[in-house]
Each structure stands twice: as structure tokens, then as C-alpha cells.
TrEMBL record:
Coiled-coil boundaries: none
Organism: Candidatus Entotheonella gemina
Superkingdom classification of source: Bacteria
Pfam families: Cupin_2
Name of protein: Cupin type-2 domain-containing protein
Ranges for domain Cupin type-2: 37-105
Gene3D superfamilies named among the record's database cross-references: Jelly Rolls (2.60.120.10)
InterPro entries: Cupin_2 (IPR013096), RmlC-like_jellyroll (IPR014710), RmlC_Cupin_sf (IPR011051)
Length: 116
């Protein structure tokens, strides 16, 4: 039975106000599941994009602004954002503190189609 000690999983070098580490991934032997921890700094935003699979984003600390389809919402710690396949979405951290996210999707490699 594989057990992954998060203390043994290192963070990738930070890029443009965001850093991440893969807690569950192809590197640990999965074929159809990825779970990654993502820390986004104040002022960060990603591009409007879609994925061909469901994506679950649990906000563990802080808050983010999420554009999903035509709806804009603030998603705070203790909540989960569900993004269906093919739905355009974008995340933004307009606050003064970092946000910590746990991102889960049913794929060993996530396809992303940027829309802008």
C-alpha cells in the first residue's frame, strides 16, 4: 500500500508568484489521479482556460476570486470549487495574503486549453 509522506515532497521552484508540489501524481505511480498543493501570492492571476476533465479546488487558506463560466465569486478557506469539463475558468488572488489550494483532477497529466 503506497503511503506518501508530504514532508518528503518538495516544492517546485516558484514561478511568477505561484509555487506548487505534487502530493499524488504519475511520479508516485498513479495512472488517473493528480493532487497538488498550490500556493498563490497576492497579485497572481492565471489565464482564462479550460480542461477536458473535472477539477476540484479546495481552498485551504486565504481566499481567491474565481471566474467560472459567466459567474465571479470569492472562494474562501474551508470551501471547494468544482469546475466541470470544458468550462472556462480563471483564478485571481487580489488579497494581501497568499492562498493555499489543494487541486485534484482525474488524470495523470492535465490538458489545458488557454482561451486568451
Amino acid at each position: 500500500m503506497p503511503i506518501i509522506d508530504h514532508a518528503d515532497v518538495s516544492w517546485a521552484p516558484a514561478m511568477e508568484r505561484v509555487r506548487e508540489r505534487y502530493l499524488v501524481s504519475k511520479a508516485q505511480g498513479t495512472e488517473s489521479l493528480t493532487i497538488k498543493e498550490v500556493e498563490i501570492s497576492p497579485g497572481w492571476e492565471n489565464r482564462l482556460h479550460t480542461h477536458p476533465v473535472d477539477v476540484s479546488i479546495q481552498v485551504m487558506a486565504g481566499a481567491i476570486q474565481a471566474l467560472v463560466g459567466e459567474e465571479v465569486r470569492t472562494v474562501r478557506a474551508g470551501t471547494t470549487l468544482l469546475i466541470p469539463p470544458g468550462v472556462p475558468h480563471q483564478l485571481i488572488n487580489h488579497l494581501w495574503t497568499p492562498a493555499m489550494l489543494l487541486v485534484t483532477y482525474p488524470s495523470a497529466e492535465l490538458e489545458t486549453d488557454n482561451l486568451d
